[in-house]
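Quiz preparation item.
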């Protein structure tokens, strides 16, 4: 069915300030419609087009034959080579296949299963495609669609392609329907199985319902941040285990009611030639733009040509592959440029329209094929319509990350003491999100944990985390302040900042120190490439207080549904008293950020009359507090308007404490 034309009135209803840019938005949508119609007309629609991984690369046919196909227009002839035989299985004798829409030369090889039986069964042999190109040169590459690559550093840092086709007895079978790397405490790479056994139960017990897995798509450089330099897009990283191990992890998570998201990196690719897809057929413009346009100077990587029919097949099939093969949902990376805030910048010549249209196609295709899918944009630009459905002129993401929030917290902790904090600005940053576009809030992520920066806990408590985090030592002012503000910052962000909450593993308990992957600059040390679960499991260390509060916060959100509720109504931002008060999901939140002042009978406004009880307070003993506020303590409203609310009640709110009250 042809995609419908965009009605400009829909865009204006969403945001009237977009009126000068409506022609550009309509044009962008028309380009999307043209691509979708092309896919429908020539490829049989999304369902067929996104199954490229069943046609390209190495696949086993219904009779057991192994079929290899590759897109390499610049190749004159090609051979499949490997350890499995001294024989070359050649593609050169097959005529070039000139097909529609840019599929100009598709070398195709069929190998009978009898001739490579040991290869199919053992999964131990390396393979490459060897191609002759017009210059007379012969080049060897890893198959672009390969589903398994491994690295042996004793031999070479270059990855080897391997055909993954385990016998039926060794293939993992999913048992559970989808639910709606550095994870060990030791200095080494963790495994999928260890994550399944040791980390999934922690996540479940803390009340989280979604896991985002990072650095899964194979990447040659472990030291580069979190797998953002992908070399083999269809291969789950072998450094953590086998594909079957990853399937077990995901299926176990589903059995716990946890949805699993994949961190998809389609914004760029590693520039590696020998074990990547760069210069795959000897040209620099097969999958990527030619010349400078195809290079990301900051990341030193390659940029995809999203206007290519076959590149779209590759990328959209990549999304489908992880959905089908691993039963994942997925999360996207989006815009990476800085903008001044003028709407014209998002729709002018500086915007990559082909890239935006690809994101529209990706969201539309995945939501069409898998309606429950969750897509999240990581966007630093504030791009309008990012979280609006494609049918309404948007790009189609379900959520967008609120990336300004962690930046705000880190700047405050770096440059100001808490008595200098501007509460109005904090509240503005937490609530400043585009109407109708759902956001995921967070205080810190892997970015803040990396070497060169500090986690919230480390900014708050610094060197005292090495000496005073034991209950056997004195509760110093630094530790007391750090524990209190860590809890308050997280609850304020969780309950006020969006429609979702994100935590980077370990930060829930105030993980000490930083992340630093093994690299030449640290003598390839794994010392800081770990999560120190031992500190939260130690019954005398104060990390357990922060961990317990994190769990209570998540379970409270699940019980009352504040993340699903409309945006909070903030009734008070008192700079002198350092008090913030707001209501959301029928709950009343009261925060006292004052470092020394506690308030008795402090008057706070609330819309609904009745009896309110304290259901959560950061001052509980089990959270490392002083028990100055009683859990379950009750307060009656007075029928007099206060701070634009119909009623008020009077509470006791100690310094550096937060309360949540419910009727």
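Solution:
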């Amino acid at each position: 069915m042809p995609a419908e034309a965009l009605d400009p009135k829909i865009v204006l209803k969403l945001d009237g300030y977009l009126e000068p840019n409506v022609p550009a938005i309509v044009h962008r949508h028309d380009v999307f419609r043209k691509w979708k119609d092309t896919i429908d007309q020539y490829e049989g629609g999304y369902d067929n087009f996104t199954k490229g991984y069943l046609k390209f690369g190495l696949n086993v046919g219904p009779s057991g034959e192994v079929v290899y196909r590759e897109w390499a227009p610049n190749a004159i002839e090609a051979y499949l080579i490997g350890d499995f035989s001294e024989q070359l299985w050649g593609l050169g004798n097959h005529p070039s296949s000139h097909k529609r829409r840019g599929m100009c030369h598709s070398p195709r090889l069929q190998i009978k299963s009898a001739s490579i039986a040991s290869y199919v069964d053992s999964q131990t042999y390396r393979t490459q495609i060897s191609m002759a190109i017009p210059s007379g040169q012969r080049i060897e590459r890893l198959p672009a669609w390969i589903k398994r690559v491994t690295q042996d550093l004793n031999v070479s840092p270059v990855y080897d392609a391997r055909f993954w086709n385990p016998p039926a007895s060794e293939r993992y079978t999913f048992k559970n329907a989808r639910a709606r790397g550095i994870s060990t405490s030791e200095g080494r790479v963790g495994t999928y199985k260890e994550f399944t056994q040791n980390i999934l139960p922690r996540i479940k017990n803390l009340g989280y319902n979604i896991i985002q897995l990072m650095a899964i798509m194979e990447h040659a450089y472990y030291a580069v941040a979190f797998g953002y330099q992908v070399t083999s897009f269809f291969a789950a990283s072998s450094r953590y285990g086998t594909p079957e191990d990853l399937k077990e992890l995901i299926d176990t998570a589903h059995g716990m009611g946890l949805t699993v998201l994949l961190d998809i990196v389609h914004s760029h690719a590693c520039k590696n030639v020998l074990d990547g897809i760069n210069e795959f057929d000897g040209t620099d413009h097969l999958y990527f733009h030619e010349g400078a346009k195809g290079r990301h100077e900051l990341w030193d990587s390659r940029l995809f040509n999203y206007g290519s029919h076959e590149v779209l097949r590759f990328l959209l099939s990549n999304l489908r592959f992880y959905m089908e093969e691993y039963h994942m949902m997925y999360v996207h990376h989006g815009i990476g440029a800085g903008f001044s805030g003028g709407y014209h910048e998002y729709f002018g010549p500086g915007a990559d329209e082909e890239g935006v249209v690809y994101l529209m196609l990706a969201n539309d295709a995945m939501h069409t094929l898998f309606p429950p899918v969750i897509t999240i944009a990581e966007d630093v630009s504030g791009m309008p319509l990012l979280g609006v459905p494609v049918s309404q002129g948007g790009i189609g993401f379900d959520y967008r990350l609120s990336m300004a929030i962690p930046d705000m917290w880190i700047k405050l902790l770096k440059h100001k003491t808490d008595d200098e904090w501007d509460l109005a600005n904090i509240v503005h940053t937490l609530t400043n999100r585009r109407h109708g576009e759902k956001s995921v809030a967070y205080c810190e992520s892997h970015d803040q944990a990396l070497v060169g920066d500090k986690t919230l806990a480390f900014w708050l408590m610094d060197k005292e985390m090495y000496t005073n985090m034991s209950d056997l030592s004195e509760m110093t002012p630094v530790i007391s302040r750090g524990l209190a503000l860590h809890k308050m910052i997280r609850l304020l962000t969780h309950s006020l900042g969006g429609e979702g909450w994100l935590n980077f593993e370990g930060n829930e308990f105030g993980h000490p120190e930083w992340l630093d992957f093994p690299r030449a600059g640290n003598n390839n040390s794994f010392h800081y490439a770990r999560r120190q679960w031992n500190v939260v499991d130690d019954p005398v260390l104060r990390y357990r207080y922060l961990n317990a509060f994190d769990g209570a916060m998540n379970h409270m959100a699940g019980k009352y549904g504040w993340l699903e509720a409309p945006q909070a109504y903030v009734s008070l931002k008192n700079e002198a008293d350092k008090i913030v008060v707001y209501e959301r999901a029928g709950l009343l939140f009261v925060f006292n950020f004052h470092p020394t002042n506690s308030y008795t009978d402090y008057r706070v406004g609330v819309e609904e009359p009745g009896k309110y009880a304290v259901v959560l307070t950061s001052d509980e003993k089990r959270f490392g507090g002083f028990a100055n506020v009683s859990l379950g303590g009750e307060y009656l409203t007075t029928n007099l308007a206060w701070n634009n609310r119909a009623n008020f009640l009077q509470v006791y709110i100690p310094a550096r404490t937060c309360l949540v009250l419910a009727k």
